[in-house]
Design goal:
- With about 130 residues, the chain is an alpha+beta fold.
- The chain has one domain: Nucleoside Triphosphate Pyrophosphohydrolase.
- It has 2 helices and 9 strands, in the order E-E-E-E-H-E-E-E-E-E-H.
- The strands form 3 sheets. A 4-stranded mixed beta sheet has the order 4-1-7-6, with helices on both faces.
- The longest helix has 14 residues.
Length: about 130
């Protein structure tokens, strides 16, 4: 099984940061939550902090990382665990993606995404709209 961690970064306006995958990769051109594979002997939080630093050039505030949801493909070969985070240090940059964009929760469902990101986006929307 491939274990993946991803972050729903939420700004002060309640918007969520999404990244567009590079065109030359699997699911190229689709929008996703930033993150990546958990390496052997790495905890989810360690992997999430490493991946976000590599992909966005920011440092997540460890105390602000909260588990939100997970999604797995039908055969259980891939599982993505999504964490929300509202505090980080630095300004996010598209270091490993074609683009970054902040989206209102209601707009997430309109984005073209890889299949496993769709239920995760719904969980983020539900969390943020339930908080109002």
């Amino acid at each position: 099984m491939i274990e993946v961690v991803a972050a729903a970064l939420i700004n002060l306006q309640g918007q969520v940061l999404m990244q567009r995958r590079r065109a030359n990769r699997a699911h190229g051109g689709l929008w996703e939550f930033p993150g990546g594979k958990v390496e052997p002997r790495e905890t989810d939080l360690e992997a999430l902090q490493r991946e976000i630093a590599e992909e966005l050039g920011i440092a997540l505030d460890r105390d602000a990382i909260v588990y939100l949801a997970e999604a797995a493909d039908a055969d259980g070969g891939i599982v993505i665990r999504l964490y929300s985070c509202r505090r980080w240090h630095g300004e996010a940059a598209a270091l490993d993606a074609d683009a970054l964009q902040w989206y209102d929760p209601g707009s997430l469902g309109l984005l073209a995404m890889p299949p496993l990101d769709v239920p995760l986006a719904a969980a983020v929307k539900e969390m943020l709209e339930g908080a109002k």
